Amino acid sequence: IERKISKDDLQFARMITTRSAFKNYMAFVNPEEGEVGSIFSVSGLKGPYKEISVTGSGEINPLENDPLLKTIGIGTRIMVNGATGYVIGEGTRSSEEKPNLSVTADMHEMDAEFMGGFITSKSPECITSIAVPVPVISEEVFSNLKIMDEEVKLPIADIHDRIPFVESNYAAVWQNTDLEIHFDTRKCVQCDLCDVEKYCPTNAFSRSKGFDEHRCFNCGACVHLCTEGAFRGNLGRIKIHDKDVPITLRQSNRSKANELAKKLKNQIIEKEFLLTEPVDYLRRGNEVKKREKINLRKSV
């Protein structure tokens, strides 16, 4: 039995993410011959060192801006896919080195522009966009807000074992590159077998309907899949030892992240979005608070 339902059919529809806003996650490369199917590729990650897949929004990641979690905790009001939401805890696989968040919000208030599905060569994934206000409550918080892509580490891992073996930074991903992908209809020759139509992770392109910019995630896979150059976008390259490896997939959308951050900023300015203090701190935030109390006692 099959039945299509939408959020309008549900009286209550609340999204809970298992992990969001991973702090400086990883990039993945295949150092060996052949292709490896993975959630970090759309058609198999080709090797040796023929392409690299990246994830993370670099300098605008909220956990880069507040690494000590002094303003982000349980109960912090945030924006999830355009809707007002809350941090409910740490996400799965969260660690002190690589924290991430579990968040929730009402799906009825969400904007489809910031969310959706993402089909990889291994399994489907979910696109979720969050924006987190970071109030400047101290010089330390202000200093962390000034972090730049060049200062945010990007570990690069072997796709086979997912263990980092070299490091770059997010400037290679987001500086002097194109945040958005553009389609040139004049260069589309309607190939009998179109790899873009076959592998586009958000189904943003078909030969019959053309390019749907609202579905496009700006991942850039199409730029390298299209042999005729109908899709344009400079995704950048990353140096790995003596190899200059092209980025062929971005699993974070910096353009939409910027858009959501601006939406949050405007709502704060218009007093439509009120900030909240955490009702409790996350693991690292608690550890920082404990150390501060100990240091305060010692100084007294």
In words, what does this structure look like?
With 300 residues, the protein is α+β, with helices and mostly antiparallel strands. It has 2 domains: 219 residues, no CATH class; 57 residues, Alpha-Beta Plaits. Helix content is 19%, strand content 26%. It has a 6-stranded mixed β-sheet. Strand 16 and strand 17 form a beta hairpin. The N and C termini lie far apart (70 Å).
Short description:
This protein has 300 residues and is α+β, with helices and mostly antiparallel strands. The protein is 19% helix and 26% strand.
How is the topology of this model organized?
Blueprint (H helix, E strand, L loop, with lengths): L13 E3 L10 E3 L4 E3 L8 E3 L4 E3 L7 H4 L7 E2 L2 E4 L2 E8 L10 E6 L9 E4 L4 E4 L2 E2 L7 H7 L7 E6 L5 E6 L1 H4 L7 E2 L11 H5 L5 E2 L3 E2 L9 H5 L5 E2 L4 E4 L2 E8 L3 H16 L10 E2 L1 H17 L1
Parallel strand pairs: 2-13, 5-20
Antiparallel strand pairs: 1-9, 2-5, 3-4, 6-21, 7-8, 7-12, 8-9, 10-11, 13-14, 15-18, 16-17, 19-20
Short key terms for the protein model shown above:
single chain; 300 residues; alpha+beta; Alpha-Beta Plaits; 2 domains; 6-stranded mixed sheet; 5-stranded antiparallel sheet; 7 helices; 21 strands; 19% helix; 26% strand; globular
Quote the distance from N terminus to C terminus: 70 Å
> What's the shape?
globular
Q: Care to count the β-strands?
A: 21
**Residue share in helices?**
10-25%
